[in-house]
Every structure is written in structure tokens, then in C-alpha cells.
Amino acid sequence: EKAVNLKKDLAEMQEWMTQAEEEYLEKDFEYKSPEELENAVEEMKRAKEDVLQKEVRVKILKDNIKMLATKVPASGQDLVTELNVVLENYQLLCNRIRGKCHTLEEVWSCWIELLQYLDLETAWLNNLEERVQMTGNLPDKLDAVNDALESLESVLRHPADNRTQIRELGQTLIDGGILDDIISEKLEAFNARYEELSHLAVSRQIALEQQLQTMRETDHMLQVLQESLGDLDRQLTSYLTDRIDAFQMPQEAQ
User: What SMART domains does the record point to (predicted)?
Assistant: First the structure.
């Protein structure tokens, strides 16, 4: 009777493992929204806990069958053979569910990381857009133009590492068919805004550099003219002081 009960327990255990495999490992999942992906992660976590909780039951079965095989070798040997099959299938199921759970957790982490990088780069784009707008109505002063140029250039020196991460994380998820529509839409919008703002910012940078160069050249010309006028003023003053008649001077002095 004990052998019959143990055989029944083995059959029930095998049936449960078959159902678990069908439910957790053989279903085709399509992760088209973050909610679906998050739910799948939580479901696999529960599946892993459920399978690992059966470890106690498997151990009890193993001990009981081995004890029976020791006491009644004739009826226990067949059970040991069935037990070995169940133990092998159970270990395989545990490994596969652990692996799938780990994979889904990695995918979810990849999605969260992508969102974080997008948030960082969006904040940078907002800052860049603000700096570009600030260059629109500058006072016609060299210091103001120079400060605006330096401010814009400091933002443009932003490293490209985050954008590289966005591209690689997004492509990894899209290649796996995970959230591909949502990610493609987000990346398209981000890249379009990045291209537009970066081109606009570079154009404004070039315009400010040219404006600054023109203002510096004008200032230099004014300085030279001011010095020339100063020399002429001192020379004419000396003529007046010495009471020299203009008709006594060279033509250019007259």
C-alpha cells in the first residue's frame, strides 16, 4: 500500500511539473507594453518561488522511496527508477524557470535603464533649447555676446555616452521583439528633436562667433582711430601753442 501511495505521489508530481512547464515555459509571450512586461516579470518570480517550494515535497518523496527500497527491494527498485526521472525533470524545470526569470528581470532592468538615459538626455535637450533661445535678443555689447557664446559652447560639450547607451539599449530590446513599437516611437521622437536642436545650436554658435569677430574688429578699428585722433589733437594743440600759422605748415597739416 505504501508503494502504491508513493507511486501515486510521483505521478502527481510529474503531472504538476508538466502543467508548470506548459504554463510558464511554453506560452508565447508578446511584450508590447511596459505593463505586460512588468506583469510577466512578476509572474515568473511567483513561478520560481512556486517551483522551489516543491523542493521540500521532492525531498520527502526521495527519502520515503529510498527507505522503502531498502526495506522492500523488490517493490522499491521500480520506484527508484521513476524517482530518478522525476528528480531529473524537476531539476531541469527549476533551471529553466530560474533562467527565464533572470532573463525577464534583465529585460525589465534594460527597459528601466533606457528610460533613465532618455530622461537625462531630454533634460539636456531642454537646457540646450533654453540656451539657444537666450541668444535670440542679445544687447549689442561684446561682453554679452561673448558670455552667450561661452554658455552655449559649454552645453554643446555634453558627452555622447548617454546617446550611445540609448541607441544600444533600444536596439537590444527591439531586436528581441520587446516593446519594439513603443521604443521605436520614443527613439524616433528623441533623435528628431536632438538633430533639430543640435543643428540649430551649432548654427547659432557659428553666428555668434562671426558676430563676436566683427565686434572685435570694429572695436580694434575704433581704438586705432581713437589713438590717431589723439595724436592729431596733440599735434594741433602744439601748433596753436607755438602760434604757428597754418599756411606755414605742409599741405597735409593744413
Answer: SPEC (SM00150)
Which residues contact residue 124 at a Cβ distance below 8 angstroms, ignoring those fewer than 6 apart?
Answer: 155, 158, 162
pLDDT along the chain (254 residues), means of 10: 82 91 78 90 92 89 82 74 89 93 94 97 96 88 92 92 95 89 95 95 94 91 92 82 64 54
Residue 56: inside a domain: yes
| Contact criterion met (CB below 8 Å) for 208 and 145 | yes
The total number of residues shown for the chain amounts to 254
Question: Do the beta carbons of residue 159 and residue 120 sit within 8 Å?
Answer: no
Cα separation, 7 vs 86, whole angstroms:
11
Q: Write out the residue range of the structural domain in which residue 146 sits.
A: 1-211
CB atoms within 10 A of CB 119: 11
In a domain, 238, yes or no: no
The gap from C-alpha 96 to its chain's centroid, in whole angstroms, comes to 29
Q: How far apart are CA 53 and CA 47, in angstroms?
A: 10
> Does some domain include residue 129?
yes
